[in-house]
Write a structure and sequence with these properties.
CATH superfamily of the largest domain: Medium-chain alcohol dehydrogenases, catalytic domain
Number of domains: 2
Bound molecules: NADPH dihydro-nicotinamide-adenine-dinucleotide phosphate
Order of helices and strands: EEEHEEEEHEHEHEEHEHEHHEHE
Number of strands: 15
Distance between the termini: 23 Å
Number of helices: 9
Structural class: alpha/beta
Helix content: 25-40%
Length: 332
């Protein structure tokens, strides 16, 4: 028996008369796309983009049946490239994984060697997937703020979508770095958890309700925004002169109905963050930090494991804006 005939389980999304349906299927290694490195996936992580792929969003995934999962961590079991050796534990996130390349919701992936980051020492695949793309993105957002000169003494930092996967890591990481963090969240019942992660204050989403004025009293020195849309436009009006806002998400909408005033009258910096198509070395740098000085023990302790049978329910919660904290998919 060659490795190509080896069977494995995957959570496959298929287009049916009843819409897009995800269910467990048995596949063979030969069903995977060609690639240099075959990885046995031990853990994956749930992200908003996986929910979009699972619901048939063609902007994320063009063709079905498809195995979502933009994150994967596990062990290399075959490699045609000297730089990535068999037996090495690796993290694979972003690029095309889980979009149009079968992803981490299957027990195996086959990908280019250039997508594989060596697992930081001291980490296992579960720990890596507690952070996943969300943790990587939060780290990139924070690094951009720091590169723009953000410092705790400048004042409070706001985090929107604070109970979400990216937001919750941003809250804990900024608090750990000494910032006074204001968590902005639509989930009143999540306020205690956000305080436990280090938020000094929790505001409801109505704090960023639409206001016609082009500028408002500056409340925050800097911010991490994970929601986009009107809340981001409102946030920009409330940033102190010279402050920066790292942005990564669009759950509140892809449009940004703002004016030039925050930028030309207060010198606000809008910092775009992409975690997907950036050089591997940039990803590796953030992973090393999260495995070291940027570790977030609160996030690690609060992450919950699920099996493939719970994927459908958990992914739907993302689309309903009801997901909170980190979910790790355990293939065992
Ligand atoms: P989550 O669903 O885990 O978190 C989003 C949070 O936003 C929710 O928990 C909720 O938090 C809040 N929210 C949901 N709906 C709305 C709404 N209509 N208006 C305002 N707030 C809302 O998603 P992730 O944290 O995984 O991702 C957040 C965003 O970042 C997504 O758009 C995702 O696509 C994007 N992303 C981008 C990446 C990049 O590379 N640029 C990488 C990773 C994610 P609360 O209830 O606390 O307000």
């Amino acid at each position: 028996m060659t490795i190509d005939t080896t069977e494995f389980r995957a959570w496959r999304v298929e287009e049916t008369d009843a819409g897009f349906v995800g269910r467990e299927r048995t596949l063979r290694i030969a069903d995977l796309p060609d690639g240099e490195v075959l990885v046995r996936v031990a853990h994956s992580s749930l992200n908003y983009k996986d929910a979009l792929s699972a619901s048939g969003n063609r902007g994320v995934t063009r063709q079905y049946p498809h195995t979502p999962g933009i994150d994967a961590a596990g062990e290399v079991v075959a490699s045609s490239v000297d730089a990535v050796t068999v037996g090495r534990p690796v993290i694979v996130t972003g690029y095309d994984l889980g979009m149009n390349t079968d992803g981490g919701f299957g027990e195996y992936i086959r990908v280019p060697a250039s997508w594989c980051v060596p697992m930081p020492s001291g980490w296992d695949s579960r720990t890596a997937m507690v952070y996943g793309t969300a943790g990587l993105t939060a780290g990139l957002c924070v690094r951009k703020l720091l590169r723009m000169g953000a410092a705790p003494e400048q004042g409070r930092v706001a985090v929107t979508g604070a109970s979400g996967a990216v937001g919750s890591v941003a809250v804990e990481l900024l608090a750990k770095l000494g910032f006074e963090v204001v968590a902005i969240s639509g989930k009143a019942d999540h306020a205690d958890q956000l305080r436990q992660l280090g938020a000094t204050e929790v505001m409801g989403r109505d704090a960023l309700a639409e206001d016609r004025k082009p500028l408002l009293k500056p409340e925050f020195a800097n911010a991490v925004d994970t929601v986009g849309g009107v809340p981001l436009a409102e946030l920009l009006k409330r940033i102190q002169p010279g402050g920066s806002v790292s942005i990564c998400g669009l759950v509140a909408g892809p449009q940004l109905p703002t004016s030039v005033f925050p930028f030309i009258l207060r010198g606000i910096n809008l910092l775009g963050v992409d975690s997907v198509d950036i050089p591997l070395a940039e990803k590796a740098e953030i992973w090393e930090k999260l495995a070291g000085p940027w570790a977030c023990p609160g996030i690690e302790a609060s992450a919950r494991d699920i099996g493939r049978s719970q994927l459908d329910e958990c992914l739907k919660a993302f689309l309903a804006g009801a997901s909170a904290g980190k979910r790790v998919l355990d293939h065992a």
